[in-house]
Amino acid sequence: MINRTIAPEFKQIEEISLIQASPRLLDNGIKLFIVDAGEQELVRIEFIFRNVNWDVLRPLQAYATNALLIEGTSKRSSFQISDSIDSYGAFVQPEYSFDYSSFTLYTLSKHLNAVLPIIKDILTDAVFPPEELDTLIRNQKQKLLVSLEKNDVVTRRVFNHSLFGDTIYGHLVVAEDYDSIDREQLLEYYKRAYQPNNCTIIASGKVDNHTVSKINSFFGSEWSANDDFVVNSFQFSETLGSTLYTEKPDSLQSAIRLGQISVSRTHPDFPGLQFLNTVLGGYFGSRLMANIREDKGYTYGIGSAQVSLLNAGYFLIASEVGADVCSSTMAEIEKEINLLRTELIPHDELELVRNYMLGSFLGSLENAFSHAEKFKSIFLSGLDYDYYTRYIQVIKEISSEDLLSLANKYWHFDRFNKVITGKK
Amino acid sequence: MVKFDRFTLDNGLTVLVHEDPTTPMAVVNTLYDVGARDENPSQTGFAHLFEHLMFGGSLHIPSYDEPLQRVGGENNAFTSNDITNYYVTLPAVNLETAFWLESDRMLSLAFSDKSLEVQRNVVCEEFKQRYLNQPYGDVMLKLRPLAYTMHPYSWPTIGKELAHIEEARMEDVKAFFKKHYSPVNAIMVVGGAVKTADVERLAKKWFGDIPSGEKYNRNLPMEPIQLEPRRLVHYADVPVNAIYIALHVPAKNDQGYYEADLIGDLLSRGNSSRLYKSLIKDRKLFTDINASLTGSSDPGLMIIDGRPSEGVTIEEAEAAIWEVLKQLSEEPVPETELDKVKNKIESTMVFAEMSLLDKAMNLAYFEVLGDAEALNKETERYLKVSSEDIQRRAQSIFRKENSSTLLYLSNS
């Protein structure tokens, strides 16, 4: 009989090998990065543009431009674009985030030649038909109405606004913002932002020389460039510890979100803070989950995150908890933060989190796309692969003393902004 | 093409191995052939609650998660109406830890009272978070019993009501474990940087001495053929009206399922699809519309859900949906349009092969349906569907007497 009380031997992860993206330059100077890996005959090509010229009076300008890219060019109608892309079994995904707007193509390699002309058309000759803009506005205004009924959405909006004010990170979108979009704004933004001087391309999957030369022939020329843009830049002050409560008397659960401005990925303390965050609320066995879900049963889930943006970093804790235990949850969160500021993390827990994070990092390198994602996180923060070498070193070596001092340096419960939607 | 080896232990545990040397990781996916459809109608939500209890410690190991995280692993699970599926990903060098943990909880749980008490609360909060405290969150709680009068698909995996979960007792937990959690009722798939010979050795070592248990023979009431349209009007504090139409479609194992799935794609996959183009873009009657299949082991549902634009009456909106549906029954779908959705299926299948976990889960699911090899025949089953098949299938699905309609209307 085997002795089931004894755990099998295990090894700590020693080797973590990243497939590094290799840089190329297109004829017009666009940076192209390649992650050529994998068995499958497919490719993902991502066009990334920085968000520029933020104007609080036109808060949805960048978003709407991105959303309407695929809705018509001077040669192709919205339907023709989607019908032809769908016919090749390809997928396109316009994506808008706080710092970047992107446009991604997923296709089987065998259809690349057929699909690229359509992509070129979208990125260089979009016309933003008024009818399509009207449809976007109508649909999005109704979606907004529904979203505002969700406590977690309201909480996230209020929290971001409390940290970032009327910047692109914090602006509270209201229905009127949609009405203020007009076609001229979109054409202006398209010309400014979607052009070679503001573009980076990342190609992953089966990316052979043929693919590279195709990308160059379509996007390395005949795409007019300009310097008529200013990359968004913001500065934020420390949070003051305000409490923002939106009462929803019929709620069964309250959504809570609390946190503060912190450092971003470029700061030397960032990897250590990610470790500290993991201990608190970054994995299933975290202290918040162990206490608030697995011991008390107050919630289905609670977590924390150390987020990095171009102009700021921030730290947050979020959950949806039974309305009757909202105050108790806040008290437990405060207790957990203070515990990390006053007591050393026990050796056993420290080693567990270390191994967990290394395993999780290894597991996040599943395929060519994931290696491309790893590159994206550093490149878009202005970092290089040394970041990961240092990250892994910090995870392997950080001590309980280091973590105690990070908690004291960065986490102050009384300075967290605290947002609650539902009942207190 | 997902290659695999298969062996069965003496106690009846089926093990599949998918060697994938391109990753340093391993996946251990354990499927138990039990889902919400196997529940007692007065104790619904139990299979899913039980899934939570599987993490509350086993006979010899007080915590499941902790030792796994210590070796760099992660895990999770889900319960559907058909199956309960547990999965672990971890560095392949530490594969044995997953065997140790997974085998001990198949042998026996610790049945801790504290775990039951806490997980009842956690699941009640999950019920509130996902179904009760969200606009339109309770749609499936209303639509399922409308569409199913006999078959246990009439309730969602979370259960019919909070009370069923609050009332779960330890003796029920023990009986459920005995009935469903044993080698003969499980399928294990191990994938990644592993070798079949090593997996076989580890499987024998850790699972070999677990008593085989009794094979659970499912004997569920069949859903009678629906003869009349059904309709429910529900008013709630939501900002916008919504329409849900549920239509009976064939089971996953039936070729008719693949026809229905392609019909769903023709209707709502991508911006060139019929419902999207006709009702959102051209006629502007809706702001959002989708068609999806429940994709279940027993005969399932196609669900059309849409939100009409402001000022559009619910009658006008509903009639417009039926016009689009009827067109598929009345006119053959053009070959180019059918090829389009097939091409999309083909590329989706290739992209899906990039994820080790997805491959392992799919192998396990097709194995419980009858044969894991069916995973590799799926593309073929889609490709052989003809335009006539589509029209015939559409004629059988898109009949009013095959439909259950939920009008979810705004109080304001």
Automatic annotation (TrEMBL), chain A:
GO molecular function, one term: metal ion binding
Pfam families: Peptidase_M16, Peptidase_M16_C
Domain Peptidase M16 C-terminal: from-to ranges: 180-355
Domain Peptidase M16 N-terminal: start-end pairs: 66-142
Superkingdom, natural source: Bacteria
Protein name: Putative Zn-dependent peptidase
Protein's organism: Arcticibacter pallidicorallinus
TrEMBL record, chain B:
Family recorded in the similarity comment: Belongs to the peptidase M16 family.
GO biological process: proteolysis
Gene3D superfamilies in UniProt: Metalloenzyme, LuxS/M16 peptidase-like
Limits of the Peptidase M16 N-terminal domain: 15-130
Keywords, sorted A to Z: Hydrolase, Metalloprotease, Protease, Zinc
Domain Peptidase M16 C-terminal residues, every copy: 171-344
Molecular-function annotations in GO: metal ion binding; metallopeptidase activity
Highest classification ranks of the organism: Bacteria, Pseudomonadati, Bacteroidota, Sphingobacteriia, Sphingobacteriales
Protein name: Putative Zn-dependent peptidase
Organism: Arcticibacter pallidicorallinus
